Amino acid sequence: MSEADLKTRLNERIHRRNVHARERGDYDLNPKWAATVSQERTLRPAAVLIPIIERSAGLRVLFTRRADHLARHAGQVSFPGGRLDDGDDDEVAAALRETEEEVGLSRTFVTVLGELDRYETGTGFAIHPFVGLVREGFELKIDKAEVAEAFEVPLPFLMDPGNHEPRTATWQGRERRFYGMTYDGHYIWGATAGILINLYERLYG
């Protein structure tokens, strides 16, 4: 897949209002889990930004690795984002605010193209992902209280189905199936990988 084709598909297939939205989540690959979860449980809303940087060398996706001391998902690779605050105008504003707070990427460098499907995690979050194109010229300022490091991965690598590895592990005594992707020593899995699969399906499905 060429960089030009990816850029065209991003502009044509990622929309601000997703009329084909459906609920996605950890249960997609683990359908038996859904029967064990209360349908009345309250999911905590969260929003993340998928920052796609328009580098001269090609499109790159910015990820964070969460700080090792955090209570939840410590050390895991994620997109910048987090819970909604009362002061946020909407979910997009929450994703942009959290991105600024976590890695110092100013929203003035970001053009939000649109949204992907909400992703429900087994830990009780309903994550709304937003895709943004990022122009060069920004400087990152990492909040070490939340983020151990930030790094970039070429978008063509992430959109290559040959790199979407189905994996299995035991979690809380149960077998869990999920996708994983490894790039330059960074292991991308779980909800983050699931959201990338959703992006691939939107662009090439």
Give a quick precis of the structure:
This protein is α+β, with helices and mostly antiparallel strands and 205 residues long. The protein contains 5 helices and 12 strands.
Describe, in plain words, how this protein is organized in 3D:
- The protein has 205 residues and is of the alpha+beta class.
- It has a domain at 3-21 and 42-159: Nucleoside Triphosphate Pyrophosphohydrolase, CATH 3.90.79.10.
- It has five helices and twelve strands.
- The strands form two sheets. Strands 1, 2, 3, 4, 5, 6, 7, 8 and 9 form a nine-stranded mixed beta sheet that branches.
- Strand 7 (119-120) and strand 8 (125-134) form a beta hairpin.
- The protein is globular and about 45 Å long.
N to C succession of SSEs: HEHEEEEHEEEEHEEEH
Largest sheet, strands/sense/barrel:
9 strands, mixed
Specify the structural class: alpha+beta
Radius of gyration: 16 Å
**Can you count the beta strands?**
12
Please describe the topology of this protein:
Layout: H1 3-13, E1 24-25, H2 31-34, E2 44-55, E3 58-66, E4 77-78, E5 81-83, H3 91-103, E6 110-115, E7 119-120, E8 125-134, E9 147-154, H4 155-158, E10 165-171, E11 174-183, E12 186-189, H5 190-204
Parallel strand pairs: 1-7, 2-8
Antiparallel strand pairs: 2-3, 2-5, 3-4, 3-9, 6-8, 7-8, 10-11, 11-12
